[in-house]
Amino acid sequence: MNRSLVNWILVFLILGFTLIGTIFVSPKRLIKKVPEFSLLKYFKKIEKPYKLGLDLQGGTHLLYEADLSSIKKEDAEDAVNGLRDVIERRVNLFGVQEPIVQLQKTAKGYNLIVDLAGINDPAKAIEEIGKTPYLEFRKEMPIEAKKKILDMLSPEQIQESIKKIEKETGRKVKKEELVDYLPLYEPTELTGRYLKSAKIEFDQTTFEPKVAIQFNDEGAKIFAKLTKENVGKRIAIYIDNQLISAPVVREEIPSGKAEISGDFTIEEAKELARNLSAGALPVPIKLISQQTVGPSLGEDSINKSLKAGIIGLLLVILFMILVYKFSGFLADIALFFYCVILLLIFKLIPVTLTLSGIAGFILSLGMAVDANVLIFERLKEELKEKKDFLFALDNSFSRAWPAIRDGHLTTLITCAILFLFASGFVQGFALTLAIGMLCSMFSSMVITKILMKAFASTKLRKVEWLWRR
Questions:
Q1: What CATH class has 3-52+294-467?
Q2: CA-derived radius of gyration, the chain
Q3: Are 55 and 41 in contact (CB under 8 A)?
């Protein structure tokens, strides 16, 4: 197939994708204006809203102070990390989109920052978050108790349970066998108040991670009795009524020391140890600050950000056309494609957008044309040597690539450092800027090149003033 024809097919695909993508990524309020008789009305059905952060969507910002007065200094970090994990689980119960729960070290100890975007009931969230994590150990129910629960289930619920167990075990399960598979547990008197410590260790032979737990004297007696009565059965570990582990008892454990082993990764073992520590070492927290961001403030921020982005984009488009003429116009088409694909990524991943994240996106707009500027300046030098236009065009892209690659790579390294070591809004800025950098390399090195080559194969190629600065 003729190379020029291939380029033009790619051009029409780019333009078609840009048109469809523009409709899909446009704000919901614009899609609402699409006439019902238009084919575009189908975009209303697949409309996916952007995921907005606290400062844009509105919500609640809570600041807690952790009381570490009853915690040993060497146990403080594990205790507050476990506390953070528990709080994250709690706020997820409210259906909050990507809640931010982070620790802040202070001169007195630790503060806990909780950002809840779009929360409908701040009072309930404050009440639930303020509770001390509750750790408890439960034993398997007797067969008779399980049968009574089974008798209370409807046929549909029984079939659903059978399907779930068959999926997990990979074997056929009869109705009468269901009682042997039901993971039903009942409370015991063993709770987190009897747990002395929980820490990660490694097996001396296999070097696999495991979690070692130790109870105090009173807890050791309760644990010994519990393990003696439940050899071969599971003892479930719950935090805030959520199952976090259910190890099988191999033998009676009279010492009050036990090991929880299994197919753990190091991170999974650490998380289990932290969760156990959160219940074993209760850390009371006190609410010291509460701020509510109203939806109207978030709407105002979105409008101002959109206005800034549109003005910035128009200025960049104008600059490229005035300075680089037709080449600049083609670069502007690539820039518009870049905006569409970037917003599409933000919607589909989805990326939680905050004001700082939008700032990263707007900054990337200006940086997106940097590569085109390098390419066009190199093209100008190549054309001065009276080279064939297509040959000069290929040279300009290949010789500008090292500078483009190195410039974008240094920015990406900076973004990675900000994302890994910063927190909150700075991470949002780093993430959107990094995604923008990757998209800009694609738009400048691929989309701009396709457009330039397609139009350079037409009669416009002979109009020299269109291509020269």
A1: mainly alpha
A2: 30
A3: no
